[in-house]
Every structure is written in C-alpha cells, then in structure tokens.
Amino acid sequence: MSRFFATGDTDTESSSESSDDEPKLVGGARGTTGAAIGSKVFTFSDDEEEEKRVVRSQKDKRYDELRSVVHAMKNSQKIKDIAKVQSSFEALQKAFQKAKSVVEKEGSTPVFYTRTLTLLEDFVLGLWNDKDAKQKLSKPNAKALTTLKQKVRKYNKEFEAEIESFRENPINSEDEREGEAGDEKDEEEEAEEEEEEVEVKKKVRIADEVDVAPAGAAAPAADLEDEEDDDVWGMLDESEESSSEDEAIPSGKLTLEYFLKKDYGKAKTEKAQSKPDAVQKAKKPKEKKEGVDEGGWQIVPKKGSGQLTKQDILRLLFGKDVKDVDVDVDMIIKKRNELISDRGKKTVEMSSLQEKLRWLMDVASQNSLGVGVKLRLLADLIETTFDFSSVAYAMKEDAWKTCVDELSELLTLLEENPAVEYSTLVRDDEENFKEGEGQVVRIQGNILTLLERADDEFIKILQSTDAHSTDYVTKLQGEKTVCSLIQRVQAYLEHRLLDSHPNVLCQIYIRRIEHLYYKVGHKNLVSGASTQAAEKEGGEGEEGEERETLQDQRAEEEPEDSLKLMTQLTKFIYNCQSGDMGRIRTRAMLCQIYHHALHDRWYQAKDLMMMSHLQEGIQHADVPTQILYNRSLVQLGMCAFRHGMIKDAHDALMDVQSSGRSKELLAQGLISRHERSVEQQKVERRRQVPFHMHINLELMECVYLTSAMLMEVPYMAAAKTEGRRRIISKSFHHQLRYHEKQPLVGPPESMREHVIAATHAMRRGDWKKCRNYILEIKVWELFIDKDPVKEMLARKIQEESLRTFIFTFSETYDTLSLERLSEMFELPVKEVHSIVSRMIIKEELLASLDEPTRTIVLHHAKPNRLQCQTVLLAEKISTLADHNEELMKLKHAGPWSVQNQNAPFSRHPHSNWQSKFRRGQHSHR
Amino acid sequence: MASAPSGGSSGGKPRGSVREVKQVQLDGSVVLKIIKHCQEEGSGSEWVTGCLVGVVVDETLEISNCFPFPKDSTDNPREEIEYQKNVLKKLRTVNVDYHEVGWYQSTYLGSHVSREFLEAHVGYQRAIQESVVLIYDPLQTSRGALSLKAYRLTPQILTMMGASDPFTPESVQQARVVHSDVLVELPVTLRSSRLTSVLLQELPKSTTLPSNALLGLSSTELLQKNVQLLMENVESLQLETYRLLGYEKNISKQAQQKQQFLQRRREENERREKTGEPPLPMTDEAIEQESSLKPVVPPQRLEALLIGEQVDLRCQQISEIAGAAFAKLYLAEGLQPN
C-alpha cells in the first residue's frame, strides 16, 4: 500500500493537501469494502511465486475471460454500437455465470465487474434520456437500446448493493486494479505504468462521462471541443493500452480524482460543475459523509450549486445549444411534461425533480413567459411535494412551510389574474398557457384539493409533535397561515363559482368551519378579559398558554362575530341540495352544536342536537364523525352545566364518561391495549385530535362527578329506607366505594378526592364545607367565564344540601320552621318554601306546609321495613310472572311472535333522553 | 300408597313387610336430645346433623333414639361412617334399638331445601327405604312453637334421580313432576313414656312457665327475615325461569335453522337427482354434523323444583306466623278495655 502512496504522491506533484488526505482515504476504503480485497493485495505482494500460480490458474482464468468481454463491450460503447454492446453484455453474463464458483469463493463480486455494470447502466440511461442522440441512432441500434435498457436494469438488480457501494466509493476499483497490477509487475515498473495509466484513465473517464451525461450537455460550449478531443484521445489511448496489456481496465478513479481536484481546485473550470450527474450526486446526503477523497467529487457541486448561472441551468434543462432568448412556453411545457411523467417513479428523487421544476420556473419568470406557465409549474411543485409525503408520517415542517408559501403564491397569482381558469374541468389536452388573442389561460388542477392536503399535513405535523413542548406552540402558528389560506381560497372560489358548484363551496366551507368551531370567539374574550389576566398571573400551565396563543390569533384574524360567520356557513351547507352531502352536513351540524355550546348558547345547541336526530344514525357514521359527535356531546354537557342544568349535563356526559374510555372516545390520547394490532394503532394514531383542540378531560370529569354528586346525594338520603335503590351514576358510586375502602383518609388533594369529600360533607348537611371543597377544585379556572359558574355551583350546593337535610332528618322532626331552615342554609325563605313545596308535590316528602306559623308539618307515614320489603317482593313476583307469561307465549305461539315483541322494561322516565344521547360507539374491531 | 319399588334398594335390611311409612312417632327424649345438640353445637345459620334410630311398626316409624354426627368430619366421610357404625354396634350391645331409620338436621328459618339436602336424603332412602329426615327449626322453637318436621322423598323424584338425563325440561315434563312432588311431609306425633307423663303432670305445681313467649305480639322481625329470604328465593327462581326462557328461544331458533337447512338439502337433492348424482343424506346425525348446529345444552330443572318447594315451605311458614299473629292480635284486642 505504502508503495502505492508513493506513486500517488509522485503523480500529484502539485496538490499537497490531497496527498495529506491520502492515508485516511485508503483506510476508509478498506474499511468499507471489506478485508477481502485489502488482504489480497498483501497476499500478492508478499507470497511465494508458486502459490500465486495456483491462484491464478483457478481464478484469473475466469477473470481474464470476463475482462476481455468487458473490454469488447467498452469499445462498442464508445462507438455507440448498441447491438454489439447488447451481445457483449449477454456474453458477459454468461462468462460471469461461469466464474460464479470463483466469485463465491472470493466472497464478493469482483470490483471491475461491478464497475462495468455501473458504467453500462449509466451509459444506457444516459443515451436513453438524451433524445437527440437517440434519434440519431440507427433503427436496429435503437431497438437494441430499448431491450438493453430493460435487461441491464433487470440484471443490475442482483448487484444492487455492490453497485451502490461502488457508486459511493469508486476507489475500490483502484484497490482491485492495484492488486491486479501487483500481481504481474515489478514495483518500479508499476509506478511508471501507474503514472501513464493515470493520464489515460482520466481521459477515458471524462470521455465516459460525456457519453453518459444526458445530451452530453454537461460541458460548457467552450470546453466542448476539448472534450471531444479528449474523447478521441482517450479512445486512442485506451486502444493502445488495451493492446499492450489486457488486464488494465480503464477508468482508475483514484487517479482521476487527483486530476479533477487539481482542475477544480486551481482552474475552477466549470466542466464538472455542470455535470448533471455530479449535481445529482451532490444531493445524495450519503455521499457527503464519505471519505475525504469523495470530497473531491463533492466540493464541486457544492461550490457549483451556488454559482449555477442561468446559462448552466438552461443547458441542464434543455441541452447544450439553447440560448436564453430561445426559451418559449412550449419548450418549458415540454420539459415540464417530461419531468412530470417521472412523478411517482421510484427512481426519481423528489428533491431533484423539485429542483428542476424550480429552475424551470426561474427560467420562465426570467423570460416572462406569462402567468399560465408559472401557475402550472407552481401547481406541479405543490403536487409533487404532496406526492412524496406518506400517509403515516408527517412532512418536515420546513417542507410544509415552503409548500404553503407556494400555495399562497399560487393563490395570489390566481387572485391577480381572474381570467385564468384553474379547475378540474379542464382536460389534459385543453390546457392553454398562452395569454392574449382571445385565448384564456386554462390549467387543470384543483386548488381545493391542494388546500385540503396542506391542511391535513398541518394536522399531521401537529399530531407528531409533543403537545407539551414549546415546539408545538411554535408549530401552531401555522394555524394562522392555514386559516388565512382557507379564507382566501374561499373568497376565490366564491368569486369564481358563484352558485354553480355548491358542493365545492360546501367543501371549502366545512374546512373553514372545522377551523372555526372549537375556537372561542373574540367577543367572549373581551368579556372574559379579566379572567384571562388572572390566568396569566396564575401562570397555570400549558393549557392556559395554549388557549391564549390561540385566542390571540383569533383576536387578530377574526374581528367579525364568529357566530354570524358560523351561521352563514352552516346555513349554506344545510341548504345545499346536491346529493352526497350527508357527511358534510352532519359534520357542519356537529360543529355548530359545539360552537353554540362553547359560547354558552345552550338552548340553540340543545335544540339543534335534539332536532337533528343525529343520535339515531351516528352509529353508522364514520369514525371521525363519531368522534366529533362525542366532542359535541361533551361540550353540550359542559354548557348545560354552566347553565345550571345539572341533570342535562349529567346525562350528556354520562355515556362518554362512564365507559372509562373517554380518552379513546374523544380521540385525545392512545390507550395501549394488547388486543390492538400495530395497524389498528396506526389508524388510531392518525385519528387523534390535535392538542389545541382538546377538551380538558379533567374538567369534563369534574363536571360529571359534580353533577352526579348534586343528583345522587339527596337521592341517596331519600332512598335510604328502601331496600335496594337505583343507582344514578355508576362511576360516581365507584369513586365513593373506592374512597370508603381507603384505610386512612387525608385531606383531599386531587379533583376526585375533593368531590368525594364534598359528598361526605353534603351527606352530613355541612353545606359550607361541601361548597368549599367543590370551589377549591382548580379545573374550574378553565371555564372562560368561571365566576357565574361558581356562583351557580354554590347555590346548587345550598339547595341540594337543604334537600338532603330534610330527607335525612325528616323522621326525627315533627315540624320544621322555614325560617330556621333558611338560616341554616343561608337561603331566602321564599326559596326554601319553593324547594319544600316542590318536594311535597313530587311526593318525595310526606309533609304539609303550615302557612300561618311558616312551618313544615311532617307526616310520619313512612312505610316500615317490612312494608318496603313487601313492596319490593311484589315487584319481583310480578317480574317473575312476566317471565312466566313470556315462556307460555313461546310455548304456545311459536317463535315468531316473540321475536317481534321485545318487552320494553322502561326502567325510569329518563331513559328516553338517554337513549337520545346514546353515543356512537366507535369500535375499531 | 302402594309399596314403591324404589330403585336401588339393595342395601335394605331384611325386614318383614316393606310398607310405606305414613307417620312418624317421636320419643320425647329424641326431641330433647336434638334440641340439646342444636343448642350446644349449632349457632346461627350453622347446621347440625345426627342419626335417627328406631323401628317401623306397621305404617308408623317409631324413632326411639338418636345420636349426633361429629362436626367438621366432612373432610373424611369414611371416618364418619366408621363412627356411625361403631355407635350403632355399641347400641346393640346395650340392647336398645339399633336400626338406623334416618337423620335429622337443624335449619335456619326453614331454608334447608337444597341440592345437597336432596342428594343426602336420596342416599338414605335408597339404603333404608323407610328412612325419614327430621327438620328442626331452633329459631321457631325459641319463640315458643316447637318446629319439628319429618320429610320423605316421593318415589317420582327417586326414579328421576336415578334416570340417565335427570331434570331436563322434557323429562320433568314427561314425569309430570311439580315442585310439590319433591317432598312429602309426614305427620309427627310425640310420645312420652307413662313415667314422663306423670312427671309432667306433677311439674306445674312446683314451677311456673318461664316466660310469656307464647303470647308475644311482635312477629315483625321473624316476618321480615322470612320475607327477605323469600325475596332471595324468588330472585333465584326468576333466574331459573329466565334460563328456561333462553333455552326455549334457542331451541326454536335452532329448529328454524334446521328447517332451512333441510329445505336447502332437499333442493340440493332434487338438483342432484336431475344430474344423476347420489343424494345427500337427510338423517338427523348427518344434519347435525354438516349444519354445525350444536345441540342446546338443556338447563337443569332440579334447582327450579327445589326453589319452588322452598318457596312453598316458606309461604306456609309465613302464613303460619301471620295466622298466629292475627290470633294474638284479636286476643289482645279482646282483652283491651274499650
């Protein structure tokens, strides 16, 4: 090896830095290509002559065979005799097949073979892509090219890994070659030869590349002749060389590198800079990480990419002889079509495609080719971006931002040029990019789809971000952009379509609505400003901040009343008659309910919910809609609570809360379950609602438990004499039982403990403690208008405590003074009077009011235990009788009558309401 | 009633004429022994059991002696049997009645009718045809009304217990067994020796009755407990009914499916006939195999029968208590000065 370095040094007399880099490089090369080659080198140089002979007879015979074929092929490549190339390719395959046993023994494919394959592939592809050259080919040659291309691609698949590594690290070939050289030659000789070869190979390599490069456009015009000279020279040289010694395969890359480096480092000619494949290589991030020597290949495009002149770009795009002025719309469009036809192919890299499109756009704008072209290219750019985004993973934020910027630019163009027709109705062949002379620019595309994709991607970005990081807040700022985009698209579409395509308008409206419904309107904010300030001071965690940022946005962008806007949008959707609108209509309705509920318009929200009959069909809706339904229902429940409708709040929240799966039902978090497969989990993850739209689960639970407490405690007190009583809220009882099991009860800490402690206080009749416990709960702060809510709560607690007190102690008293009660519970006498009257009317309390003395006279006519039991027994027996009757019917009337008649055991009068609110169970199985 | 050819009476001792026992005569000492045993050993709802010894005279089963079973020996039934044998042997050596004629059990408010109870007595009645079971209710007795009841199993139940598929809804229906056919209560008479009678005659002179328990007006608690238990029974009965209902529904559903399958099979066979292929089998087994219809597991009706019997007994008890209470109330009313 060291000897080889010596020669290397002598070769590159000029560049000292490259020789400094040398050792590292080789080390790296050896490291990557495996010990086989390296060790072979040593073996050959150190081992005995006899042993070499043995090896040679087995291996080199085959290899020589291969080499000769390779050589022949190379020559035919030079003269572009494709048919010959093809035949030698086939011969090569056969020879390799023969050599296979040897190859297997070696453990790796010989590098020269890989190299040949790589070069062949480049050659074929280059020729294929270069239309001019292709046209020049004779008919049999063209035909051969097609077949060869397919064959090469197919064959090369087997050697994908090798080719890849070769492309990354072409130096391998040098090692190999060197080893081969060492095989036969003396060291001195070799050094000389090396020098010579290097010269030769540089030329050859360049020649190769010129061939390979599409259209040979790489070289600047000035260098072109030079190149051609080189080409000829290279060929000549090579033939000389090949005649002199068969194993010396051209294109030693290492040496070439030196020269290239020298070239670029000193002269900085643009030769290689503009080579498209070099440019392409630069884009592969992998290569950047490669050894220093690779830097020689790399530095070029790095420097070059910044310096790409207009001329270069033109050449890259259209071939060598295009002048700036010549560029016209047709050319651009032709090139664009060419590029776009590659869309979706695996071989095409997104970044390169996009870069080319960007160049095209630059060229177009420099030559002021009109809006049409620009629009087309912009749309293509956006579309390709989305092409490459996967379903499961979010785009990079930067990519998304650029994409949105482009979208906005596109929109601006559309807004500025109202005459342009940009819609799906334009067919491929109807597209027109030229303006003027009565022609209208017509472009195929759908701004709405693009927007929807951008929006979806935004949500994906948010989903993939940790919701509790500042990163999320930063990313959330994109919401503003999205909203404004939606607004603009909406305006544009409204303007364009008028009323001709209501369903398209509906689609954009529903987008708008879905970005609107969960946000608290500006007006409410102003009223709740004091609360906000308090929250700020309290510094109460991300949730608060989250809201603030959102609300700030809102304040800026939504000066108008969101209610008005919401009504207007939904009304349009409801009125839209065209078919297939069911889902949009449902979603719009749910959003409106949510919005109403969020803004404390309880009656509107409730009426809409009840009148829409959504609950009947929601089981059949798609899962996201069901989630939305659950969200709306929860919001409705919270709204009811704020309005003091405790029972409604409880009923609305019960289904979501009591299942214990509220997280899942609202899509606000994943529950890891074993029965879910990975696929299902992925799907579920995609469904998650972004964090800023979350409904606070703790607040929801708190509302639910508090409502349950307010209903359950008096009921428990009233029903204590009866044997077994109905349970209003199971989860509340669960909490209660759990708490009673605790061996040691400390002061309440969590929200649940507070509610339970309040429950116990209320049962004792200690309403003040109860109130304090409840009001201590922190989550109430999350209500925007929390003070009235707290007031309402305090009042409800007083009332319910009074009821509980009367129920609990009615047996002990003969009479109760209203004044005394009002003192005890700090309620006005009138209020106490009305509560007691209500209890008497509902027959919950057996008593009468004595007006003159203002007392309650209690009638002690409570049934004793035996009586209660008897009543219960009677109930049970009647059920038994029912069952028996059913059995009789079954026996006598046969199966048919029973199936149609399902005995409704309406348990209590609320079941109706509950069934109306029955939540759409979204099961993933 | 004719002598029942009760199944499996192989173990019966060679007694002269096997005749159906119609009544039970208890020796006073037996009653006292049972009460003593129960008071000393049994507490609350814990049951005590023991063996009855006596002789059959015509249609009367005279029980002259008894001895308790050891407690907590259920782990080793052999030990229990050994103990029983030993005691009987010893009794023989002292030349008293040593023929085993049944067993006794204490009960809590008459809730003794259970599967275990039934199975235990089936064993007895198969081994010793004339055997009875005495049920003693300490709670009732402590309130002043001695409650001792003798029961025997009906021959229907005995045959059914021995049948291959006992107590499926069909077999119960065929045997025409209802809950009242499970147990037969035999009248119990108490007999004291002359000497005892004389002693009892003498007693009131020296002692007064210890309490006025007999005249206590409050029967609420007892009633409450009874109603509570009755409620539980009704609940389990309801469950049984529900099970039966489910079974019937399944049966009819399956019959329907079977019909459909047959229909299809018939059509298929018609088609096959036309094409000349051999027809598919239409037998029940083939259908069962091919149509993957699994036979519905019939629910056990024994529980239902027993619960029915239990409910019946309890109702009797309640009406007894209530009747007594009414009588007492009228008495009290009459005594009240208006």
TrEMBL record, chain A:
Biased composition regions of type Basic residues, renumbered to the chain: 916-925
A GO CC term attached to the entry: eukaryotic 48S preinitiation complex
GO MF assignments: RNA binding; translation initiation factor activity; translation initiation factor binding
Location (main, coarse): cytoplasm
Keywords carried by this UniProt record: Cytoplasm, Initiation factor, Protein biosynthesis
Segments of skewed composition (Acidic residues): 10-20, 173-198, 223-248
Subcellular location: Cytoplasm
Gene Ontology BP term (one): formation of cytoplasmic translation initiation complex
Comp. bias regions, Basic and acidic residues: 199-208, 267-280, 547-556
Bias-annotated ranges (Low complexity): 212-222
Region feature Disordered, mapped onto this chain: 1-32, 163-250, 267-299, 530-561, 898-925
Residue span(s) of domain PCI: 691-863
Role summary: Component of the eukaryotic translation initiation factor 3 (eIF-3) complex, which is involved in protein synthesis of a specialized repertoire of mRNAs and, together with other initiation factors, stimulates binding of mRNA and methionyl-tRNAi to the 40S ribosome. The eIF-3 complex specifically targets and initiates translation of a subset of mRNAs involved in cell proliferation.
Subunit organization: Component of the eukaryotic translation initiation factor 3 (eIF-3) complex.
HAMAP family: eIF3c
Family listed: Belongs to the eIF-3 subunit C family.
Listed name of the protein: Eukaryotic translation initiation factor 3 subunit C
Organism listed in the record: Geodia barretti
UniProtKB/TrEMBL annotation, chain B:
Gene3D superfamilies named among the record's database cross-references: Cytidine Deaminase, domain 2
Compartments where located: Cytoplasm
Region Disordered, residue ranges: 263-284
GO terms of biological process kind: formation of cytoplasmic translation initiation complex
Chief place of localization: cytoplasm
InterPro entries: eIF3h (IPR027524), eIF3h_C (IPR045810), JAMM/MPN+_dom (IPR000555), JAMM_MPN+_peptidase_M67A (IPR050242), MPN (IPR037518)
Compositional bias segments (type: Basic and acidic residues): 264-276
Residue stretches making up the MPN domain: 24-157
One of the Pfam families matching this protein, by short name: JAB
Alphabetic keyword roster: Cytoplasm, Initiation factor, Protein biosynthesis
GO molecular function, one term: metallopeptidase activity
Gene Ontology, cellular component aspect: eukaryotic 43S preinitiation complex; eukaryotic 48S preinitiation complex; eukaryotic translation initiation factor 3 complex
Subunit architecture: Component of the eukaryotic translation initiation factor 3 (eIF-3) complex.
Known role: Component of the eukaryotic translation initiation factor 3 (eIF-3) complex, which is involved in protein synthesis of a specialized repertoire of mRNAs and, together with other initiation factors, stimulates binding of mRNA and methionyl-tRNAi to the 40S ribosome. The eIF-3 complex specifically targets and initiates translation of a subset of mRNAs involved in cell proliferation.
Annotated family: Belongs to the eIF-3 subunit H family.
Protein name, as recorded: Eukaryotic translation initiation factor 3 subunit H
Organism: Geodia barretti
